[in-house]
Specification:
78% of the residues lie in helices and 0% in strands. By secondary structure, the chain is mainly alpha-helical.
Length: 204
């Protein structure tokens, strides 16, 4: 455990030395959960090492690239590859099962809302890739979701300052509110699709 702790400490030092690019690469690699990397980015903002908006921009770029990478694995490697190697990018079989259920139930529009749902959000790119969802649409919806997520955790890391490592304790109330909004959006989206399908059926 001490070795792992030292390794993570060195990773944060490396991220700090690279500034904006450190945050971007840290999110692209996903060795450390994105929320923690972004909170650390907020801490760097509080120290004057980087700019607040720059942290959000590079955090968004890194987060989107990470998801495009998972999308490509799903598209060209399929589920077997992700089940075998997904653990290296913090994705396991349970995540894939849940994300496939959501994708089948709600369609491509869930790419945005699922980013705010625990368990599903990291793996929703898998079924998107397997189903060959258009990359442009996938990237747009992913970017729109990653921006507010990045802004929230950079802001929380900034306000916490030296106590940024307590992000899990502080973020809970914010993520719960986001979760409720995301679920509400999913319900509205689902009802809209149902209404559209019913209207199309009655017109046929």
């Amino acid at each position: 455990m001490h070795v792992i702790s030292d390794l993570i400490s060195h990773l944060f030092e490396w991220i700090q030395s690279l500034g904006y690019f450190g945050i971007m690469i840290g999110l692209m690699l996903e060795v450390i959960p994105s929320e923690i990397v972004l909170a650390f980015g907020g801490y760097l903002v509080s120290q004057g090492d980087i700019n607040f908006f720059g942290a959000i921009i590079f955090g968004t770029i890194g987060g989107v690239i990470a998801q495009i990478f998972v999308y490509w694995i799903g598209r060209y490697g399929g589920r077997p590859v992700l089940e075998k190697y997904g653990k290296y990018i913090l994705i396991n079989k349970k995540h894939i099962d849940h994300s496939e259920e959501w994708f089948k139930k709600y369609g491509t529009g869930v790419i945005f809302t699922a980013r705010f749902i625990p368990v599903v959000r990291h793996a929703i790119s898998v079924p998107a890739g397997i189903s060959r969802m258009p990359l442009g649409k996938f990237t747009l919806l992913t970017t729109l979701a990653v921006i507010p997520w990045s802004a929230l955790f950079v802001y929380l890391g900034y306000t916490l300052g030296d106590k940024w490592e307590t992000i899990d304790e502080v973020a809970g109330k914010y993520t719960r509110e986001i979760l409720l909004v995301a679920i509400a959006v999913i319900i509205i989206y689902f009802l809209f699709k149902w209404y559209k399908f019913k209207k199309k059926g009655s017109a046929a």
